[in-house]
Amino acid sequence: MDLEKLKEFRNSNNPYAALLGIRVEEIGQGTARVSLRLEDKHFNPVGVPHGGVYFSMADTACGSAMASHGYYAVTVNASYDFLRSGRAGDTLTAVAAEVKGGRTLCVYGVRITNQEGTLLGTGTFTFYKLDREIEL
User: Fold this and answer.
1) Under a CB-based contact definition with an 8 Å cutoff, are residues 107 and 50 in contact?
2) What does pTM read for this prediction?
């Protein structure tokens, strides 16, 4: 699988991630990195980025790492620990890596940091691999 084409495919075929401003920066075998620059639209009434922003970044990173195997997949379970909040103007990066590959279930870990490398959160996502190859 051409991972550069897969990155382009993931960026151009995920309208939800695009709405939030999440971009896939890199996909490797079982790994991926996505980024997002925090804007006012990402903040909740408490004045911090909405938890859904972090969760969506984490899911996008893990889903992109899963896609590196050439198959579509769906998230079947996920947990995310919110450790710190970002600030307006921060660039967040989510890095995902395969914990366990499997015939149908695959597990990925993810870490989200800001531009200074401060850890904002971690997560674990489990995917069900569909019997449908990604055609680029």
Assistant:
1) no
2) 0.97
Element of type H or E holding 115: none
For residue 48, what is the DSSP state?
Answer: S
DSSP string, 9-47: HHHHS-HHHHHHT-EEEEEETTEEEEEEE--GGGB-TTS
Cβ–Cβ < 8 Å for 83, 46: no
Q: Among 96, 103, 92, which residue's Cα sits nearest to residue 78?
A: 96
Coil vs helix vs strand at 120? strand
* Separation between Cα atoms, residue 23 and residue 33, nearest integer Å: 9
C-alpha closest to that of 57 among 83, 86, 84, 20: 20
Tens-place pLDDT, residues 28-65: 999 999 999 999 999 999 999 999 999 999 999 999 99
59 HSE (CA, 13 A, CB side):
18
